[in-house]
Every structure is written in C-alpha cells, then in structure tokens.
Write a structure and sequence with these properties.
Order of helices and strands: EEEHEEEEEEEEH
Number of strands: 11
Largest sheet: 5 strands, antiparallel
Oligomer: single chain
Structural class: mainly beta
Shape: globular
Strand content: 35-45%
Low-confidence stretches: none
Radius of gyration: 19 Å
C-alpha cells in the first residue's frame, strides 16, 4: 500500500472539534465519505503539525491530532480588529445593509492588493468593525478521522500546486 509522503494526494474523512480558552468543546466541521477532504501534502496550507501527523499513514489508517493555537492558526489578535468607514463598502454609491450583517464574511483586499476574508464584527452609523483573524485563531483544534486514500501526485498537480480531478480543482 502507498504511504503518505511529501507530494502525496491525500483523501481524508474527519471531524474537527475546537476548544476555546474556557475549555468549551464544539464540533465545527466534518468531512464525510461523500465529500471528503483532498489535498496535496506539503502544499495544502494546512498547519505543519497536522500534515506531519499524517506522514507514513496509508489508506484505512485512523488518525487523531490536537493542535494548540500556536500550532494551528495562532492566538486571537485584537490588532486584527479594524474599523472601516461605512462608505468603504459602497458599490456604485450605495451601501448594502444586508451585506453588513454581523457574522458575515466578506472578501476584501488591502492597499497592496492582497486578498483576505474579514468577518463583520460590529456595525454602527459611522463604521464597520471587521475581524481579520482566522476563524479558528485562539482555539485548540482536535481532529479525529481516517485516511481514505493516498496516491502519488501527477506531474501536472505538482506543477500547479493542487489536486486535480474528482474532489480537486478543475481547469
């Protein structure tokens, strides 16, 4: 059987639970057999410790990984809360109040053109407070799952840096 190595295409099913600073445990995500997670090992953008825990595993192997905030998406950073003028969100001179609902994630870009997601944290008459922390920042993540399959990446997948085909990227 093929073992997971650098540049393997990995298919997983799992559940992700998180614990916040109070210790409260919450199920936040599942990947079931009908919609598993596929990624290219070493190029996924997933936390390094998560990928490292999968190295050497093969199809059928279970896994459990716990990541402290500093091993995952970092501590929650109050400096990532930014208040922007309401007119920043105007399209053709109008602000869409439906878009500016607390909890909504909005695609944005900074002055250098870097793309990011921000969550609407608060809205008032003058401004919109956006939270640019990763949604899992400050949380301990507990993954439990199973390796469904593993194969060597194709030359095209390695060249493009992502998985192609069913469950992957389509060009």
């Amino acid at each position: 059987m093929t073992q997971i190595t650098e540049n393997s295409v990995v298919t997983l099913t799992y559940e992700l639970r998180v614990s916040d600073e109070t210790g409260a445990d919450t199920l936040v995500e599942t990947a079931e057999a009908d919609e598993p997670m596929l990624f290219l090992m070493g190029r996924s953008g997933l936390p390094e410790k998560f990928e490292a825990a999968l190295l050497g595993k093969q199809a059928g192997d279970p896994f459990e990984v716990t990541l402290a905030p500093e091993e995952g998406y970092g501590d929650y950073d109050e400096d990532m809360l930014v208040t922007l003028p309401r007119d920043t969100f105007a399209v053709e001179g109008k602000v869409d109040d439906e878009m500016l609902q607390v909890g909504n994630y909005l695609p944005m870009s900074d002055q250098d053109g870097n793309h990011m997601q921000g969550r609407v944290d608060a809205v008032d008459a003058d401004g919109v407070r956006m939270d640019f922390n990763h949604p899992l920042a400050g949380m301990t993540m507990h993954f439990r799952g199973r390796v469904e399959s593993c194969r060597a990446a194709t030359a095209e997948e390695l060249d493009h840096g992502h998985v192609h085909g069913p469950g992957g990227h389509h060009h």
